[in-house]
Amino acid sequence: MKSGFSKLTKKEKINWVVDKLFVDDVESKKLLEQYHLSNSDLQKIHDDFSENTLSNFLLPLGVAPNFLIDGKDFILPMVVEESSVVAAACNSAKFWYKRGGFKTRIIGTKKTGQVHFLFDGNKKEFFKFFDKIKEKLMFSCDDITANMKKRGGGIISLSVLDKTKEIENYYKLNAEFETADSMGANFINSCLEQFSKTLEIEFNSEPRFNDNNLEIIMSILSNYTPNCKVIAEVECEINDLSDKDIADSNLFAKKFKTAIKIAEKDTSRAVTHNKGIMNGVDSVVIATGNDFRAVEACAHSYASKDGQYKSLTHVEINKNKFKYWIELPISIGTVGGLTKLHPLVNWSLKLLGNPNAKDLMKIIAVSGLAQNFAAIKSLITTGIQKGHMKMHLSNILNMLDTDDDERLKLIKFFDDKVVSHSLVKNKLKEIRNG
Ligand code: MEV
User: Fold this and answer.
1) End residue of a domain, out of 221, 239, 263
2) Does residue 253 share a domain with residue 374?
3) Structural domain of residue 418, as residue ranges?
4) Which is the catalytic residue, given 275, 300, 358, 427?
5) Pocket probe mutation, ligand 1, options 274, 315, 384, max atoms within 8 Å of Cβ
6) Is residue 398 part of a domain?
7) Atom 9 of ligand 1, residue of closest alpha carbon
8) Is the pTM of this model over 0.85?
9) Could you report the per-residue pLDDT of 312-350, keeping only the tens digit for each?
């Protein structure tokens, strides 16, 4: 066990790790140094984001132009390591641009947090007591909420829920919040911790509970935000769906609907279907400096809200109309957090025209819908591997250290062929042997 690791300088940390696990591997230290921006201001900023930083871990930042959202043009910033995600976004964006673009609407922006506690006394008395101290609980957060109120946010409601059927003596104080353009995690958690302090103080000075106990278990926001939700949709005449890959638009619409139905009924498909949606969602969430783990957790729990894990996208075919949409709860921010601190996050937000939180929710939902459209379109027409393998070829060529001339020859050769690592390797050998 190593104590005091965090107190070491970065150099000492690197030396310790290298001496411990990479003694004979001279390249490993070089690698860390290569990605470390020695003595730069940017490195100082990065080092403050997290603990025990040794270096930086880079991911590609790409852009997807031609997104028409509520009549306005956008270029989406996308941070993602998987080939084909940005290409898929671009294809979808272009496809729907020609058909009127994406339309969005916000369904709500409420977030919640809970103080979970145990109480072993009379329920009725507790609810009376809660009504009496509710205002006090609110007031006790005045210092924390002052700034948020100026920005249009704050605490919206407070209630206590009886959960004793689920766990003996278990209650939760449920608070609803508006957090304006911030994600609001710190704000919500600070309010909740203050509620729990005030609740304990008031409880301890209440004579009717002299013989009872109240035990605070924890105070924390919920990343499940079903009332902070956005819908993004596209719509067109079925006949207008035709393009180079869609010869028969009626057949395409029918197959598309069946594909969505399968993702509504079959969990093994639904998980992959929603994973594809999250390819688009996470790429923009990361580029804009938001918490993708929170967004992921929320999306997947929402997908199971009816007791079965289901598709987050839906389709309706009515007469000759094809309507397709995503309903996504999503809690993000465009102020606070990394938004000003990380230069590329700041740049990405500028690229989007410095959206407020509601507008960013819309853009992210569109990115998810676009990604799902591209995936289903490929799956039910050409198959997914055609596009994927083209991008994958690039990775294989890098792995095999090809030069420019070899690359050109191999790309040309595999243009109409199925790519595999061994086939590329063999063909390269052939080229190198003349
Ligand atoms: C790959 O990252 C995502 C897809 O598998 C999504 C899907 O199957 O819908 C292509």
Assistant:
1) 221
2) yes
3) 388-432
4) 275
5) 384
6) yes
7) 273
8) yes
9) 999 999 999 999 999 999 999 999 988 989 999 999 999
